[in-house]
Structures are given as C-alpha cells and as structure tokens.
C-alpha cells in the first residue's frame, strides 16, 4: 500500500530494469515515486509490471507511471466475470487506502462496430463541453467488449497518486477473455503542484454503482466525479488540458 509502505519501499525494493538509463531530467524523487507504486500489493500480483520514471518531453513533464496486469482468466460469461473480478479489485483498492471516486460500465456499441470518440451510446456521457472531452475520460465503447472502469487517488506526504482500474470482458475471443489492469500515475519531480486532488473528490459508497450491482447493466452507467490524472503534466505555455484532466 502506498500510504503505509512509501517510506520503506523506496529503500527495500531493488532497482527495476525499466528504470535504468533514464534521462537526466529523471531524478531520484521520480524513481522513488515509481518504487512506491511498485510496492502496492495489487501491483505485486503482476510479476513483470511496466514501470516508467517520469521525464521531460521538451518542456512538458511526462509523469511517473506503473502499469500492472492483475487478472487474466477465461470465462464462458465474460461480461459477468469481468464485472465480478473488477469489483473484487475495486474493493481491494479501497482496503489499500485508495479513495475510489468514480466508476463506469461501458457496454459494446449497438449493432456491432467500433464506436468513435463521442459516438452515441445509449445512456452514455452527456455532460461536458464536447464529445471528445467527454469520451477522453471514460473507456471508448468497443465492439463485443464489456468494459468496467474505476478511478481513485491517494495523498502521501502531500503528493497525489492516481489509479485507474480497467476491467474487460471480451466476447469475441476464445483465449483469455477476462482481464483487469491497473495504471498508477504520480507527478513528475519538476511539477510545482503535486497535490492534484485538492478538492478531495468523495469516495463512491461501497455497494453502489453499476460495478457492484447484482446484474450486468443493460447500458452505459457511471457514478461519481468524471475526472482523472493525465499522463502528462501541465503544458509549458499554461494552456489547460481538456476539461476533467488534471
């Protein structure tokens, strides 16, 4: 857990191969933040998580990131199994101290095909300034995929950590068709503002929302505040990101 393990994890964990050879604008602080995310017990379920310490792309900070595959199974009912496995991971994240403030269930688009950003899906996101901005904040509907997403944050020593859970039930494959992945992000060492959730979005009550319903939802549903931490930091010209991205 990041909250309780941060101070020991950065000492006890060995260096990760993917962190080797980082550019000069990657500091020990960035590597420590990555190691803290790698110390999360859910990330530890993936024997080879992808870890990337932050760096500067020009003058834009690319944030510290860890990606882990935590569930990969086969099911005869992938839509239901993906929801059940996603709910388990959601509750594990809550137990690990993450404030899980958003959840969404995204069905396949009607009549097959792949929905483009902003394409109409019954009950889909309808608020916000543009379809592109709205759909950048939730998984895009995909043909024959049921998707379950949840977002959370944690504040450690004044630094915000973000987690995005993506569960998928694929009804178009005969191989592993149920998966749950985690993506964790922390600010780059050059960012002057490192608490990116000062408004403290409230947690979704346990047992509420489409993920924790008794049956697979029949259409798009979401609960909570639709916002997430971007993989890039603030733009050097001060131009804001799309609404909802931090």
From TrEMBL:
Residues 232-246 have a biased composition (Low complexity). Keywords: Signal. Residues 1-20 form the signal peptide. Coiled coil: none annotated. Residues 112-132, 224-246 are annotated as: Disordered. This is Lipoprotein.
């Amino acid at each position: 857990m990041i909250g309780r393990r941060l101070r020991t994890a950065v000492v006890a964990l060995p260096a990760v191969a993917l962190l080797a050879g980082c550019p000069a604008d990657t500091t020990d602080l960035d590597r420590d933040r990555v190691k803290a995310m790698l110390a999360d017990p859910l990330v530890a379920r993936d024997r080879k998580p992808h870890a990337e310490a932050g760096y500067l792309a020009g003058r834009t900070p690319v944030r510290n990131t860890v990606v882990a595959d935590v569930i990969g199974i086969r099911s005869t009912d992938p839509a239901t199994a993906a929801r059940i496995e996603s709910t388990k991971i959601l509750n594990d994240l809550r137990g690990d101290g993450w404030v899980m403030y958003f959840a969404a269930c995204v069905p396949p688009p009607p009549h097959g095909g792949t929905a483009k950003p902003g394409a109409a899906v019954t009950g889909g996101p309808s608020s916000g300034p543009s379809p592109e901005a709205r759909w950048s904040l939730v998984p895009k509907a995909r043909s024959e995929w049921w998707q379950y997403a949840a977002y959370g944050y944690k504040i450690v020593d004044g630094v915000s950590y973000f987690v995005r859970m993506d569960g998928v039930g694929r009804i178009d494959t005969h191989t592993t068709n149920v998966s749950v992945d985690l993506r964790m992000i922390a600010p780059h060492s050059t960012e002057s503002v490192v608490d990116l959730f000062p408004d403290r979005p409230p947690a979704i009550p346990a047992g509420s929302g489409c993920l924790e319903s008794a049956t697979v939802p029949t259409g798009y549903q979401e609960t909570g505040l639709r916002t997430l931490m971007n993989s890039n930091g603030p733009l050097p010209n001060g131009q804001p990101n799309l609404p909802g991205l931090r």
